[in-house]
Amino acid sequence: MRELFLVRHAKSSWDDPSLSDFDRPLNDRGLNDAKLIAKELKNRLVKPQIILSSPANRAKSTAIIVAQTLGVENIEFKESIYESSDFNLMMIIKELDESIKSAMIVGHNPALTMLVNKISSFSLDNLKTCGVVALTLDSWQDLSPYQAGLNFYIYPKMFR
Prior knowledge:
The protein is α/β, with parallel strands linked by helices and about 160 residues long.
């Protein structure tokens, strides 16, 4: 059995219009939400063996906060997660080594929402900022549509 945690980056700042989309940082709410969700994941005993994250500033910051809180040292920042599609995210998951039992992807919408809807029977309109969808599946390589089971879906507003 494999555990997959799909995390949308926390709320980002639009205060500086000169920044590119890639460089936008988390705003204060985003920083607080990332810490809040990380603590909730820790309470649920979540500890992925690897975190794969978009290198965009807002996703990278979210991934680092979660990793530090959960004690995860294995973080990889993959350009292919930024501006990805659900299909590309599926390919990234399929490339995971089967020795890995638990993985987390920190990325962006709409790809994450589309991926959840493609690989599980859970219907999601919009993965909220700093939302986490926890799925179970039999194998990374054999990942196919509607195969993953939903373990939980959480987002910051549930804990404020």
